[in-house]
Specification:
211 residues, alpha/beta, six-stranded parallel β-sheet, three-stranded antiparallel β-sheet, 5 helices, elongated, binds zinc ion
Length: 211
């Protein structure tokens, strides 16, 4: 069976897409199993929740969990579902992606992963890189650049603090897009390549001015 990776920027409705895909199965009377890494602190534990408030129960796992063993245990207990869907897949460890590759092949169930491609510096996340390596199919969930008047496709997740772009700090910092973030001083903005690198230039100029 196939391993899928549906990737996109922040705010590109990936979770909504996951829930819609899961719903297609359940409407046919088929079982699905939803998974997410526990690093995702934006939504309630034990649920995958979209921005518009749709949600569905899920199993939460941590970075040390062997996902093949976890799903073999599920199979023992309740049987294997018709589809497995994984949210925030950028936070998977590379080994866990290989686990999911084996789940698709050995348990004969399609595994669909949804997540970001790259972090705020434009570098691929570990899980996303491994998914590009091992997935049968990768599909982009598109959204447009949030710069005013720009209609280009967003490729990057710019990090902002107090209204200004920042390019330093930890790769993983859970946040949200403007107006939705808990810490309103700190948020992400989907940007096209032109505006992302314009922000980088502005940031570097500002840093030079500060020193
Ligand atoms: Zn743009």
């Amino acid at each position: 069976m196939k391993l899928y990776f549906r990737y996109g920027c922040m705010d590109s409705s990936k979770t909504l897409r996951l829930l819609a895909d899961a719903n297609e199965y359940t409407e046919r009377g088929e079982q699905v199993l939803l998974l997410k890494p526990e690093i995702d602190s934006r939504s309630e534990q034990g649920f995958i929740e979209s921005r518009i408030g749709l949600k569905a129960p899920c199993i939460t796992f941590n970075e040390k969990d062997d996902l093949l063993n976890l799903l073999l245990a599920v199979k023992e207990k309740v049987g294997i579902p018709q589809c497995i869907l994984v949210d925030e897949a950028q936070f998977l460890k590379a080994l866990q992606v290989v686990n999911l590759r084996m789940v698709a092949d050995r348990l004969g169930v399609p595994v669909m992963c949804y997540g970001l491609k790259s972090d705020f510096q434009g570098n691929m996340f570990e899980g996303s890189k491994a998914l590009f390596e091992h997935a049968n199919r990768v599909e982009e969930v598109k959204t447009i650049c949030r710069e005013k008047g720009c209609k280009k496709k967003a490729m990057y997740n710019g990090r902002f603090k107090n209204g200004l772009p920042v390019f330093d700090g930890d790769s993983v910092r859970i946040g949200d897009t403007e107006g939705r973030a808990e810490d309103s001083d700190f948020y992400y903005v989907p940007k096209c390549s032109v505006h992302f690198f314009q922000d980088l230039l502005d940031y570097e100029k500002r840093r030079k001015g500060e020193n």
